[in-house]
Amino acid sequence: MDVVIWSRIQFAMTAAYHWLFVPLTLGLALVMAVMETLYVVKKDEFWKKTAQFWIKLFAINFAVGIATGIILEFEFGTNWSNYSWFVGDMFGAPLAIEGILAFFMEATFFAVMFFGWDKVSKRFHLASTWLTGIGATVSAYWILVANGWMQNPVGTTFNPDTVRSEMASAAAFWEVVTNPVAVSKFFHSVTSGWVTGGVFVVGVSAWYLLKGREKKFALRSILIGGIVGLVGSAAVMISGDASGVHAAEFQPMKLAAAEGLEEGGKGAAFTIVPGVKVPHMLSLLATHDWNGYVPGINDILRGYTDNEGRVIPSVADKMAMGRTALDALETYRGSEDPAVKAEALALLNANVQYMGYGHLEKPEDVIPPVGVVFWAFRLMVGLGMLLALVLLLCVWFAWKGKLENCRWLLWTALWCIPLVYICGQAGWVVAEVGRQPWTIQGLLPVNVAISSLSAAAVKTTFFIFLAVFALFLIIEIRILLRAIRKGPEVEPGNA
Amino acid sequence: MGRRQPFFWTLYRDGFRNMTWGRPLVWLILLKIIILFGILRVFFFKPAMSGLTDEQKSERVGRHLTQKDTLTLNL
User: What backbone phi and psi angles, to 5 degrees, belong to A418?
Assistant: First the structure.
């Protein structure tokens, strides 16, 4: 395997590892904030102890997850230095805002939430708990603004003098911040975190019921966690619909790969599994039109006319325009003659949106690994629906007072904890494998984004990370399991 | 009578002093930060273009960007 593959595997592993901690942080933050609100409103010590227990698990997850995202930034500088330089402020600005926000909000309010039970008023503590969760959510927004820009690079101007993407104005910054891909990705990711938090709370509580322990605590937690998870599930479906529409508009190849759609057309059918199709459903999901046109892989290679009547060039034509852009860039940078530079700049600007295509060897290079994306999508959707069903049943039986005797459901809820993580990871596989070969859609393919490193160097750090990550994960699971086995008997104010 | 200490100082100080189950987490975070910044960053993750001026970085990336024939995709 070459350096590109090893760098991608390493980045994928680091991002996947980071995403083990983030969704639980986002989801548990909401669950514990709701529980503490009940404590403040009802003035019932039971809710205080309940909230304290889930805050304890939140803190363990937070402690192990903290700084795992920084490793991605190490990799940007070392393995993806061409990319890091090329993206310039487009990527740096959102990440800087995220870093500052995360540091100040989380360092301040997390400390009050964690240490301040007997030192600040109930309301101030409650506000701190909510703000810890809001801080994590706002942080997620800025990360997803950066990621969304890679999937749909809006608001950018390529500067051939610096070879960087730049935000030319405040309007461009606003365009980046409100990028529709970033917005739908944010809601999809955060609400999937609510599902993760809900499933985790319901699963852990189910274990207590299976053991015949902490019945009141477990049943109340299942109601709160289950409702948070169900609200999250509904929001995931709505935001997933928006993500589908955006993929159809901005990344049609990703959608075609997720559907395994070789030849598209009007009134396209949705494939549930190979051989089982729902007529017109793909058109409805992708365009909100029963007979909307959805291009397949071959249509994209050949070129097509979209639903707005825009003519989308073939990949071969885009490659030709990309090569023109790269030649113009080379001429511009190599010449001192103002007239030659001006002509080259005009040619570059006319073709810059296809610049990345100039690096491709053949049109088929734009096709991502279809099998991986197709099955990851089905895994995500299938598990998402299963999780929503299990949450619904748990809430219903808990509400009716019959959950304790429903052991099969309690076992299912417990086993849903690993499933919710697989579901979330599958979602990222769809998003990130589905956009290959691009690091920045249409502008920069992965093989150009990479640094000049040896595969052996990346391989070495990959295995070091693997060992370190595995060690920390084992430590986290052991500390979490010990805290869960001990149960919710947390003394007030005792951290 | 001594001066009253700032709220956040006492919050952190007393919080860390009175920790029970949270103590291993703090050690875990410190260990992780040492591994990340003291070992991985120093020995394995040096920025590939550190030490170059912005002009040299532009030159290097520009050259890499226009070498369109020497690159292959392996998806």
Answer: -65, -30
User: A251 near A147, Cβ under 8 Å?
Assistant: no
User: For residue A365, which residues of chain B lie inside 8 Å, CB to CB?
Assistant: 73, 75
Closest to A142 (Cα-Cα) out of A183, A170, A88: A183
In chain A, residues with a C-beta closer than 8 Å to the C-beta of B26 are 63
Pairs of CB atoms within 8 A across A/B:
140
Residues 6+ apart with CB under 8 A from A449: A80, A82, A83, A86, A439, A440
- Which amino acid type is present at position A358? G
- Judging contacts by C-beta atoms under 8 Å, the chain A residues touching residue B75 are 365, 367-369, 436-437
The mean pLDDT of B28-49, rounded to a whole number, is 85
Ramachandran category for residue B51: left, alpha or beta (phi over 0 → left; psi -120 to 50 → alpha):
left
Closest chain B CA to residue A319? B68
pLDDT of A442 above 50 = yes
Q: Which two tokens stand for residue A345?
A: 């700049």
Token reading at A139? 């942080």
Residue A179 sits at φ, ψ, to 5 deg, of -50, 120
Contact between A79 and A450 under an 8 Å Cβ cutoff? The reply is: yes
Query: How much of chain A exceeds pLDDT 70, in percent?
Result: 98
CB proximity list for A240: less than 8 A, separation 6 or greater: A188
Mean pLDDT on A405-423: 96
CA distance A71 to A22: 14
Packing angle of the helix pair A407-433, A252-259 (nearest 10 deg): 140
Measured CA to CA, the distance from residue A95 to residue A143 in angstroms comes to 6
Q: Evaluate if pTM is beyond 0.90.
A: yes
In the predicted model, what is the mean pLDDT of chain B?
79
A420: Cβ contacts below 8 Å, ≥ 6 apart: A23, A195, A196, A199, A200, A383, A387
Residue spans of alpha helices (H) in A260-337: 281-287, 297-302, 315-334
pLDDT band at B2 (very low <50, low <70, confident <90, very high): low
Average pLDDT, whole number, for chain A? 92
Q: Is the pLDDT of residue A90 over 90?
A: no
Q: What is the dihedral of CA A338, A341, A342, A344, to 10 degrees?
A: 160
Q: What whole-number distance in Å separates Cα of residue A423 and Cα of residue A263?
A: 28
The C-alpha torsion from A90 through A93 and A95 to A97, rounded to 10°, is -150
In this prediction, residue A1 carries a pLDDT of 67
Residues constituting chain B: 75
Residues A96-106 have pLDDT tens digits of 888 887 777 87
Structure tokens at A415: 């086993």
Picking from A56, A79, A369, the nearest residue to B75 by CB comes out as A369
Provide the shortest C-alpha distance from residue A32 to chain B (in Å): 18
